[in-house]
Amino acid sequence: MSATTPQIRHGVDLVQVERLREVMERHARFEEEVFTEGERAYCRRRPDPYPHFAARFAAKEATLKALHRGLFGGGADRALKEIEVVREDGPPRLVLHGALARAGERAGFRSPTLSLSHDGGIAVASVVWIEEAVS
After folding, report:
1. Is residue 113 part of a domain?
2. What is the SS3 assignment for 52?
3. To the nearest 10°, the Cα dihedral for 68, 72, 77, 78?
4. Which domain holds residue 40?
5. In this structure, which of 18, 59, 68, 75 has its CB flanked by the most CB atoms within 10 Å?
6. The domain that contains 106 carries what CATH number?
7. For residues 12 and 122, is the Cβ–Cβ distance under 8 A?
8. For the chain, how many structural domains are there in total?
């Protein structure tokens, strides 16, 4: 039986906060179509929710990049809502739902590491997975 070397999957994305704000103000349903109820509640509790929305949007795109999948054109990609940034006590963490969760499980992805930051009008997210052996 040969051992395989685990593969590292990494995705990173950055979002201009002002650009996302403009999109959200122009398209009334964008927030509801892209962000989960928990994400919307977390961001809306902040004095300026847009840097937090931007960081979460960057996390969603970084996740898709780590999965070697891009966004589809023509409106909000349903997969974006299957990617959720959860922030309770401690650092934010990534939770996948639906088809993306099943695909990640089949590929051997377990607990992704998520890092978010926003400053100077830019939000950035980094997602790292190590593929684990699936028995």
Report:
1. yes
2. helix
3. -70
4. 8-130
5. 59
6. 3.90.470.20
7. no
8. 1
